[in-house]
Every structure is written in structure tokens, then in C-alpha cells.
Amino acid sequence: MNKSNELDELRSRARGLIPLFYPSSIAVIGASEKLSKPGGIVLAHFLEDGFQGKVFPVNHRKKEIKGLQCYPTVLDIPEQVDMAVIAVTVSQVMEVLQECIAKSVKGAIIFSSGFAEVGVEGIELQEELKKLVNEHKIRICGPNCMGIINYNNSMMAAFSYSGIFPVNPPQTSKNICFLTQSGGFGLSVAVTAVSQGFGFSYYVSMGNEAESDFSDFLAFSVDDPQTSIIAGYMEGIRDGKKLALAADMAREAKKPVVIFKTGRYEASSRAALSHTGALTGSDMVYSSFFRQKGIIRPESIEELLAILTLLETKTILQGGKVAIFAYSGGHGVVMADKCVEAGLEVATLSEETLQKMSKLLPSFASVVNPIDSTGLDLVSQSLFKSCAEIVADDPGVDMLIFPYWVPKNIEEHTWEQLIQLKNSTSKPVIAIIMAGMTGAVPEHMIYLKRHGIPVIAGLDFAVKAIKKVVDYTFKVNSAKQEIIRPVSFLEKEKVEKMLAGYPPGGRLSESQAKEILLAYGIPVARERRAATAWEAVSAAEQLGYPVVLKIDSQDILHKTEARGIKLNLVSAGQVEEAFKEILANARQYKPGANITGVLVQEMLKEGTEIIVGIGNDPVFGSTVMFGLGGILVEQLGDVSLRVAPVCENDAWEMVREIKGHSILDGMRGKPPVDKRAIVDVILKLSQLVADFPQIAELDINPLVVFEDGRGACAADALIVMK
């Protein structure tokens, strides 16, 4: 199935969720008068919170609940039922679901716990439930969930024993959909967000995700006209491909997705044979995937709320050059340090800007960025706005940041000046409270927010949020690119034959791996395979000295450990001696190894060693990795990663992302390396694994990259099959 068809299928699944959000009639199965029970809580919500649809309590022990006729089963309801809320014990769920299916109910929210979260028996029961609902095409949220709230039609099909559900503040746009895999934690985040003036379109606690999962609800939110921002709490997903499709939908619609993902330090449980596999734990894959797809990942709840503040006020951050207006020199220095630490740039103001401000400020004020007016703006109340308008006109400035210390020390005239400034320039104006904040949200924060000026409490959270929104804006506005480059059918067929018959865990020798790379247009070092010392000498003379000798065996993956490699051999005598030593060392290292010979390889000219490779993640599938090569990859682990397939923009991001990027730009008199050649190899590896997903791990280590314009060459390669 091609991507277009996959997107159509996901959109169809998303549309199928409409009965869970916009039912005209709801049956509450397990309804109760008691607010200590989920069936009582949700029934009270329907009756008291403004839901306009029909509500049918179902409880075989009751004739009437809260003035409504109560039915023994859903089958006894004389009218059509669009959606059912199931609040019964786990032992009753399957029978109730079968009754809902017989009644042609389109969707169900299942509060009941006792499924996959409790162990083996629960897992088996959930699989039975999943099979039933898939067979009869009834959409469900849950089980073991807290439910769904639709703020657009006042449908609060959710329960909380605390009774605290967030209510949208007055005069607030209801545009944020919040998706959570933890009901209690998600509720606490939503309550905090509402207390800070955010408004929601939907709240979804999806529980065990037996049928509809995070990606389904994300796709629903993307296509929903009431939602412009999607936020969420995620612990993990099962289908990375579906999440990728939903994320692509969001990026295409330019609806930002902000996901607080936990499990950051979960280590990969798979023992990897290659460097690529060993260096790509599951959380690294999530982080890389989020960057690749333009999903914003906050590191804390405070940072999540800071990001939402920027997004909800439609603060478009198209660059990272900041101008800082400080109350004092100290404030400015602290702010500048934090901005640079987060990856923002303290803008260098033009000479014209400096001169204009110098005419307004006294000689002891600082007109260079960060700008310190020495408090004179408190005396001359229009001074701040005048200076800020001058700075806003500077083409080297992308945004204006106004930090202050505590909420109480901002004067009303300053609020108005900020609003006037915001209205006079297209550049973002952001207010930051330097310290964290407790207690009620100050009136001026809500006031400024309603006028499109974000106010963020907490300096560290603010600058990180700003940088992530800058990166998101760049990503979402980047030109779309084709993913896969064509490869000839004959070359693909050749590789298919070479890989045929390898069992799971099967390994290719270096010479076989290089043959596959060559078929996909990746340059490899010239080499010959020798079975005898005489053949090795002959090969060396054909290739030209100096040469490298290496053991060629699918059973010996790391040649250095086996003492199976000799470098810079310059004579026939050295080659002959090295041949004998390598064979002896290999047989001692692994007596039963299948040795196909010794490779005689040209000694590549000096270049920069990097590593590129393919890994495999249980959630997202094939990944492509890049980093500094040789021993550096083992010592530093400085690598970047993307989920295959990757486009050219992804590949360039990978190259720029590593901490050692400056090495590629040339250091200590060395010229810059050929980055275009690196990108080309990354894209060809992506195409290779897209064509042959049975490749579990692949290393090119090292890939020797020469100076700009001179290309790159694979000196060693390893392939392990799934």
C-alpha cells in the first residue's frame, strides 16, 4: 500500500471516531445515582453540564435514575444509540459489548479496568475484546480509561473521583486538543493549563488503546476544524508507522503537535551486534522521530505550558535572533546566557540602531544587546516603546524579549506599551518572568495573552520553549522533498539475490556487504580477496602500494578485536607476513569461524572518518544513523538518527546535528569535508533499507570523507539480517 492510500485509510479511521465525540444519544451502562461510582459521575455530567443529546441510563437493578427511565440492557432502549459509556466490572464488559453490537451502537468508551494492565489473563481478555470490536467495526476508547470530554458540545463522557475536571476560562479560545495515555496525570496537566488561561476543544484519556490509539485520536484532531493545537502525554506507542502518518497530516495542516514523552532513560533491551544498533536506544529513536516529523517535545510540564503559550498567542518565530530589554545589567546578562545556552542567538544590532537609541538614552545606559535602559523608562513612560520600535526595525532582529522579575513589578503603562509595540511590528514580542511562579495567575498575564503577547513564567522554560517553536516553524515551512531516489531494477534484483536465503541474525562478510553498497551507488575502497599469500602479494601489486590487509569472515564482525587487520603495508614481504599473521590471529580468536579469505584493499588517502549505518527499532522499524567514525563513535556516542525513509532535508539535519559538526567544517588548517557526499550516502542507505527492510543492522565504519568536492569512500562494512 502506498503512502497516499495509507493516509486515506488513517483519515477514514479518524472519521470513524466522530460518534465518540458527537453522539446524538448516549447509553450509560452501569449508571448509578452515586457520585462515588464512574457510572454515577458521568451521568451527573451529562445532566448538569449542558449536554443536549439524549441520555439513557442502563442498570438492570433500577427503574429510574435522576428522573430518567432506566433500562435493563442497551437492547431494551427503544431508540437509536450512537455511543455507549461502559462502566461495569471487567467480567461484564464482553457481554455488554456484544449487546452494543447487536444494538448497532457505533462507539463505546470503556472505563472498566482489569485488562492488559493487570497481566497475562488481562492481556488475553483484551485481545478477545479487540478481535470482537474489529470484527464488528465498533470504535472504542479504552478500556481502563477516564474517557472523553468534548468542550464544543459539553459532552463530558469522563470520570474522576476527585470531581475536578477543567472548565474552559471565559473569553478563551477552545482550540487545544489534549491527548493522554495516563488519565490521572493527564488530568492534572489539563487542570494546570486551564488555571493558566488555556482553553480546550477536547480532552481524551485513551487508557489501554485496545482499538483506537494515540495516532487515531491525533489524526482526528488534525482533521477537526475546532482544533488548531494538539498537545499530549505519551508513554509509548505500538505502531510507529501510523504515528508517522498522523504527524505528516499535522505538518501538512500546519497544526503544531506538542508531546510530553516519558521514559527518556529506558534502555534498549536488544543486544546489538553493530555500533548502530548499540548506540540507538529507544528514547533516542523517539526524540529523533519527533524532530524529523516536526513534533515538539518539551522536557517538563512547565516547558509544555510555555510552548502552548507561544502557540496559542500565534507567536510566529521565524528566526532565533533575540533582542533583550532588561531592567538591569544583571537581568540582561542572565537572560543572554540562557538564550545562548538554549541555542538562540543574541542579535548584533546595526550601527544605525545603536545610534538612534543613543540619542534617546543617557550615556551610562547600554544600547548594545542586551539593552539596559537603567530604569529610566520608569520615569519617561514612552521611552521603552520608542527604543523597542527602533530595535524592531533592525533587520538583524527576529524577536523582542522583555524579561522582568516578579509579576507585581510590571506597571499598567508597561502593559499598554507592550501591546502598542506588538501592534506596530510584525516581529514577536515576548514577556518572560525571570523566576517560576506560584499561586493565582496575575491579571496582566491573561490580559497580555488576550492581546497576542505571550507571558511565560520561568526563564529556563521560556528560552527552551522559544527555541523549540523556532525549530518547529522552520520545519513546518521547509519545502517538501521526495523521499526515495530511483535505483535500477537490475541492481535491486542483484541485491535481492545476494540477500536471499540468509536466516534471522545471518551476517554478511565485508566483501559481500561492500558489493551491496556498490550496487546502490555507494563508493567503496578498491580491493581483492586473496586465498593465499601469493594471491595477496599479486593483488597488492595490482592495486598499488600502500595497502591494507583484513580478514574476510561473516563470523568476525570486529576485526580490530581479532587482530585481523594490518595497515599501511608497502612491500611484498610485509604483505606476505601480514597475510600469515592475520589468518593465525583469526583462527585463534574464533576457531570455528568461516573464513572466506583475506581482503587486500587500497590504503585510502587521508580524510575524516565517519560512521553511517542502519538500525532497527521495534516501534518505528528501520533507522538511519550518522556520526563521527572510528574509535570516536565508541568513546563519544555523538550520533544523529532518523527513521527511514529520510528525505534530503532530514539528511542535512543529521549532518548538522552532531556535537562534533565543527570537525566537518575543517579544523586546524584542514579544509571542510564533502558534506554533500555524506548526505548522498545517507539517502542511498535509506533507499536500501526501504527496498530491503529485512536488513536489521548495517555499519559503514569508517566512511572516509575527503575534502569538499572530492567525495567519500567506504573502507569497511557490516550487514546483519533480521
Shape: flat
Mean pLDDT: 91
Pairing-aware structural class of the strands and helices? alpha/beta
Tell me the name of the CATH class of the largest domain: Alpha Beta
Low-confidence stretches: 267-279
The fourth-level CATH homologous superfamily of the largest domain is NAD(P)-binding Rossmann-like Domain
- The helix tally amounts to 26
Q: What is the CATH architecture descriptor of the largest domain?
A: 3-Layer(aba) Sandwich
Instruction: Please state the oligomeric state of the protein chains shown.
Output: single chain
CATH topology of the largest domain: Rossmann fold
**What's the end-to-end separation, in Å?**
22 Å
> Radius of gyration in whole Å, from Cα?
31 Å
Helix content: 25-40%
Can you offer a commentary on this structure?
With 722 residues, this protein is α/β, with parallel strands linked by helices. The chain has four domains: 253 residues, NAD(P)-binding Rossmann-like Domain (Rossmann fold), CATH 3.40.50.720; 161 residues, Succinyl-CoA synthetase domains (Rossmann fold, 3-Layer(aba) Sandwich), CATH 3.40.50; 78 residues, ATP-grasp fold, A domain (Dna Ligase, domain 1), CATH 3.30.1490; 114 residues, 2-Layer Sandwich (D-amino Acid Aminotransferase, Chain A, domain 1), CATH 3.30.470. The strands form six sheets. Strands 20, 25, 26, 27, 28, 29 and 30 form a seven-stranded antiparallel β-sheet that branches. Strand 10, helix 6 and strand 11 form a beta-alpha-beta unit.
